[in-house]
Design a protein that fits this description.
The complex is a heterodimer of chains A (176) and B (577). Chain A folds into 2 domains: 5-87 and 159-175, ACT domain (Alpha-Beta Plaits), CATH 3.30.70; 88-154, ACT-like. Chain A, domain 2 (Alpha-Beta Plaits, 2-Layer Sandwich). Chain A has 6 helices and 9 strands, in the order E-H-E-E-H-E-E-H-H-E-E-H-E-E-H. Chain A has helices spanning 20-30, 59-71, 98-103, 105-114, 134-145, 167-175, and strands at residues 5-15, 35-42, 48-58, 75-82, 86-97, 117-121, 125-132, 151-154, 158-161. By secondary structure, chain B is of the alpha/beta class. Chain B contains 23 helices and 20 strands. Chain B has a 6-stranded parallel sheet with strand order 3-2-4-5-7-6, sandwiched between helices. In chain B, strands 11-10-9-12-13-14 form a 6-stranded parallel sheet, sandwiched between helices. Classes of the chains: A alpha+beta (176), B alpha/beta (577).
Chain lengths: 176, 577
């Protein structure tokens, strides 16, 4: 079990410092591990950043990676979770010619059925936004491809865990 | 020459004073107790050198002949003293030349702070003269690094640098300071760093784990200890000795751990690893409990991992959680500072002895003696062996000297045969295997402990990688004793070519210069020995010299180092010939 490759979401709580992204990505690079996606944002704690990294690896190796990440001075704590242990999604945007919206009736149905949202419309193009699981986004992409997509972008995975990740207590413990 | 500072102003917790960043840097270093810096000046670090000139009664700068030499000297200083070594360089090539030493310090857990000058902040990223992204370059090989662009950051960042370099599992830290930050003025005060909230240097000891470790140790029939540098870094030599003596367990060492207890200690069963002793390697695969203490299961120690101590219950005493289960799965991971864990476990350990088990080590040693050691130390052939040179150094230093070795055959011979009565006696580049390490490292070691004899044992290949540091020795009068074991080959590579590449000696034979003349060119007393009967007198002359001394010993050209665990083989497959 431990030696089969699987998708893991790594969550890293860190200080907000220049250079930390380089330090963390170097850990993966050195071990020849491909990062499927990465998202860095603020977290629920003030002045603490959160990395969400999606990787495909064995549990044995993901555990070692967590050890190496936590070893970095400015990393507060790192966790790894399986898909089942997280609520996750990705976000994407499509830029499409506006005329298609009126000429191709099918597009309106696709938008409705996919729960996508129109962000803006002007004379030349409209922008569609969709958040959800990877396969939903991929399906929408496939369907819209038939009509021509001017631009497409998809974000890295973001995820929250079902269980608690006790960061606040850890930081409080340091202050005491 | 006494390079230590004579006066020292206290800059700790004083009232603030309005000064420049570069002066603040020098005062910060003094506040951290630094009295020697190894470095090399240049454009982007010049303001700091100007301050060093003004503060030379408090802090001594040693001009090495290459920045790599500065890092190795700082490493030698740190390894022998346990204090943080400091190296300094300018931006660009000065900074990149530090990288080998930084990588060496990282893999061998050596506390070191490197300070580099950087182009002014408005020029960052503009490909300015001597600009290089040293923070980016050094990231994978530093414990921490940081770029300072404002003078006011200096005291806090320097305090943090020293705290991080020294605490927990030590390592190198690099601080890059832009030239404008060096010139800028601000209100300087200095406070020591007492903690970083995202960094936990020492894990808390889990008493229940200690209890189960003690139980396993007490129940063991054929236990064995393999200890590493962690014992020395944790300053736990006394605790370790007490533990070994009470438990009665045969103890073997990695090359980074040797000297933590005396070589002659009856429970010291020798070296593990590729060129280690026969008994501890073989018996690793026969013990029922393996106690790994402050070591990290390097591949040169374990050989083929899947065949390493699979029968044994592994108890791993370790300060760095990332080392647990990294290479060898620990049945009982004992996290914590070894000084703490060993002293806490001591009362739980039963006093025992393992006479039959110990006899097995002695029996295998006998085999190794007949096949290998006898020929190394008491050769009957004409050519000199590296082993007999070490034997003579042992005799004359009585195990008190620090042996600083480079990398290759002579290093393995030095580690195998050098005798130590004192801790921190073996200074070598273990993890990175950096040729050129020994000469500059010996300079740093000698300056840190002028009262201790420091003997650099170097091969003819590695010697020429940092040979220019003879200039540093001449200028500082550091009384380093240098022994070059010259076989006119890159001996270790040649040995592999002989054994595994059908004797195709690709680029390993060396046409060497007259090393004695070169040493004399630097006004260093020098001698060459080619015959056995000259050896003892020459070493005596070297050891009794009050000054630096260079001794070239021309040894057998094609000797091999045995025992040997071939790369990828199991420790059980150790070869004696």
């Amino acid at each position: 079990m431990e030696h089969t490759r699987k998708q893991y979401t790594i969550s890293v709580y860190t200080e907000n410092n220049i250079g930390l992204l380089n330090r963390i990505s170097a850990i993966f690079q050195r071990r020849h591990i491909n990062i499927e996606s990465m998202n860095i944002s603020v977290s629920e704690i003030e002045a603490v950043s959160r990395f969400t990294i999606l990787v495909n690896m064995t549990e044995v190796n993901v555990r070692k990676i967590i050890g190496q990440i936590e070893k970095q001075i400015e990393v507060i704590k790192a966790f790894y979770h399986t898909d089942e242990e997280t609520i996750y999604l990705e976000s994407c945007m499509f830029k499409i010619k506006s005329e298609l919206l009126f000429e191709e009736r099918q597009i309106q149905n696709i938008i409705k059925e996919s729960d996508a949202r129109i962000v803006t419309v002007n004379r030349d193009f409209f922008v569609l936004e969709k958040s959800g699981r990877r396969h939903e986004i991929e399906m929408l992409h496939r369907e819209l491809s038939a009509f021509g997509i001017m631009q497409f972008v998809r974000s890295g995975r973001i995820a929250v865990t079902k269980d608690e990740m006790k960061i606040t207590e850890m930081l409080a413990a340091f202050n005491n | 020459m006494d390079v230590k500072a004579k006066t020292k102003t206290n800059y700790l917790n004083q009232e603030s004073e309005h000064i420049t960043g570069c002066e603040a840097l020098v005062r910060s270093l003094i506040a951290e107790g630094v009295d020697i810096i190894y470095g090399y000046p240049g454009g982007a670090i010049m303001p700091v050198y100007d301050e060093l000139f003004k503060y030379q009664d408090q802090i001594h700068h040693v001009l090495t002949r290459h920045e790599q030499g500065a890092t190795h000297s700082a490493q030698g200083f740190a390894r022998i003293s346990g204090r943080v070594g400091v190296a300094m360089a300018t931006s660009g090539p000065g900074a990149t030349n530090l990288i080998t030493g930084i990588a060496d310090a990282q893999i061998d857990s050596t506390p070191m702070v490197c300070i580099t000058g950087q182009v002014p902040s408005h020029l960052l990223g503009s490909d300015a003269f001597q600009e290089t992204d040293i923070v980016g370059i050094s990231t994978p090989v530093t414990k921490w690094n940081h770029q300072i662009t404002r003078a006011e950051e200096i005291p806090e960042v320097i305090a943090k640098a020293f705290y991080i370099a020294k605490s927990g599992r030590p390592g190198p830290v690099l601080i890059d300071i832009t030239k404008d930050a060096q010139f800028e003025t601000f209100d300087f005060t200095y406070k020591k760093c007492e903690g970083v909230r995202s960094y936990k240097p020492v894990p808390k000891v889990d008493t229940s784990i200690l209890k189960s470790a003690a139980q396993a140790i007490n129940d063991a029939k054929n236990p064995m200890i393999v200890w590493g540098q962690g014992v020395i870094l944790g300053e736990a030599e006394d605790e370790f000795k007490a533990f070994v003596e009470k438990s009665g367990i045969p103890a073997a060492w990695t090359i980074m751990g040797v000297s933590a207890i005396p070589t002659s200690h009856p429970l010291n069963v020798g070296m593990v690893g590729m060129h280690g002793n026969y008994a501890p390697n073989k018996l690793t695969n026969e013990c029922d409990v393996l106690l790994a203490i402050g070591m990290r299961f390097d591949d040169r120690v374990t050989g083929k991992l899947s065949d390493y101590a699979t029968q044994a219950k592994v108890i791993h005493f370790e300060i760095d959680p990332a080392e647990i289960d990294k290479n060898v799965i620990a049945d009982i991971p004992v996290l914590g500072d070894v000084k703490e864990t060993l002293s806490e476990i001591l009362p739980m350990i039963k006093e025992k002895s393992y006479d039959d088990w110990h006899q097995q080590f002695k029996d295998l040693l006998k085999i190794e003696f007949e096949k290998v050691i006898k020929n190394d130390l008491h050769p009957t052939k004409d050519g000199l062996t590296m082993g007999e040179v070490l034997k003579e150094i042992n005799l004359q230093s009585r195990g008190e000297a620090a042996i600083v070795s480079d990398v290759g055959q002579h290093q393995m011979i030095a580690c195998r045969y050098a005798e130590f009565n004192k801790s921190r006696g073996n200074i070598t580049s273990g993890g990175l295997g950096t040729m050129g390490f020994a000469l500059p490292a010996a300079i740093g070691a000698k300056m840190a402990t002028p009262e201790r004899e420091v003997v650099a044992v170097i091969g003819d290949g590695g010697y020429q990688m940092t040979i220019q540091e003879l200039g540093t020795i001449f200028q500082t009068k550091a009384a380093v004793k240098i022994v070059v074991l010259n076989n006119d080959f890159l001996g270790m590579v040649r040995q592999w070519q002989q054994l595994f590449f059908d004797k195709r000696y690709a680029s390993t034979e060396m046409s060497n210069p007259d090393f004695v003349t070169i040493a004399k060119g630097y006004h260093i007393e020098a001698k060459r020995v080619t015959k056995r009967e000259e050896l003892a007198t020459a070493i005596q002359e070297m050891m009794t010299s009050e000054e630096a001394y260079f001794l070239e010993v021309c040894v057998e050209k094609e000797d091999n180092v045995f025992p040997m665990i071939p790369s990828g083989a199991s420790v059980s497959e150790i070869r004696l010939e």
